[in-house]
Amino acid sequence: MAEVHDKPVEKWTESDVSSWLRSIGVKEQYIQKLHEEEVDGKILKELTEDYLKKETGMKSGPALLIVKKRNELVESFQVHKPQKVKKTHASGLNTEAGRQNEEQGTDSKVSGFCGKYIQHHAANLHFMQNYKIPSDMSIREFESHLHLFEQTSWIFCNGRSDYRGNEAPCDEMTWIKTKITLLRESVSLICKQILPKGTFLVIFLLTSPVEKPLLHTFYEFFTDMEGHEDIICISECEDNYQKWKGFAGSVLQCRDGESF
């Protein structure tokens, strides 16, 4: 295992992954199943507890062990240590050492902002359903479980084109029907329990035409943050900004009688 530990996890082969799993005491039946799924280092970096349980029949104990040990390995190869600051970035939702990115782009991991980021930083790759606290877990235990204040957490709100699990991207109307409740719950958890009011910013990066899921995301943050004082919008073009301004302005007028 010395050779494996001398290189970043994303450069591991399938055999490297199998050897590492044996070294941390994972049962051979699970190792074989992951080998059949062609899990190499890049895929290992993305594995979640839910995926391990669903795809291999693994129990929570070994699944949590794999995720925990994997995160420790990834962190050991970080190019830069995160600073202890809190800020949130939605389209991104970002907290560095607690930084979280809510990502609407399904290709972000492959060819977008997320892909560029993880070339130089360790990151947790999550989906919105990961932001549900089990009834027997405290908020601090939940934060530790997801490693929220250890490295950036990237929350994919509309699936991922490169993900092998059951998280396929969907069109706008399907997203509104099936995902909006998850969005509401995850934003509420982040704003009301994880990050204290006044300690973070939400930054909307408009790098593509504005679509309804992003507008719903703004509305949920606006509602749970009780206003727009800590919400910032950065747009790369005038057209995107004008569409955004029209929607955000109507929300503000309906809620507070303000203009945007």
* Average pLDDT over all residues: 78
Which strand order does the major sheet show? 1-2-4-3
Structural class: alpha/beta
Tally the structural domains. Answer: 2
List unreliable stretches of 5+ residues: 78-98, 103-111
Helical content class: 40-55%
Distance between the termini: 58 Å
The Cα radius of gyration reads 19 Å
Give the strand content. 5-15%
For the largest beta-sheet, the strand count, sense and barrel status come to: 4 strands, parallel
Count of strand segments: 6
Number of helices: 13
Encode the helix/strand succession as letters. HHHHHHEEHHEHEHHEHEH
What coarse outline follows from CA principal-axis ratios?
Answer: elongated
Précis, in short:
With 260 residues, the chain is an alpha/beta fold.
Characteristic key phrases:
DNA polymerase, domain 1; 10% strand; two-stranded parallel sheet; alpha/beta; four-stranded parallel sheet
Walk me through the topology.
Elements: H1 2-5, H2 14-23, H3 28-36, H4 41-44, H5 49-56, H6 60-76, E1 89-90, E2 100-103, H7 108-111, H8 113-117, E3 123-127, H9 139-145, E4 152-156, H10 172-178, H11 180-194, E5 202-206, H12 212-224, E6 231-235, H13 238-256
What features would you describe in this structure?
The chain has 260 residues and is an alpha/beta fold. It has 2 domains: 2-76, Transcription Factor, Ets-1 (DNA polymerase, domain 1); 89-256, no CATH class. It has 13 helices and 6 strands. It has helices at 2-5, 14-23, 28-36, 41-44, 49-56, 60-76, 108-111, 113-117, 139-145, 172-178, 180-194, 212-224, 238-256, and strands at 89-90, 100-103, 123-127, 152-156, 202-206, 231-235. The protein has a 4-stranded parallel β-sheet, with no helix packed on it. It has a two-stranded parallel ribbon with strand order 5-6. Helix 12 links the parallel strand 5 and strand 6 (231-235). Helix 11 (180-194) packs parallel to helix 12. The chain is elongated and about 60 Å long. It starts with a helix and ends with a helix. 32% of the residues are buried. The model is unreliable at 78-98 and 103-111 (pLDDT under 50).
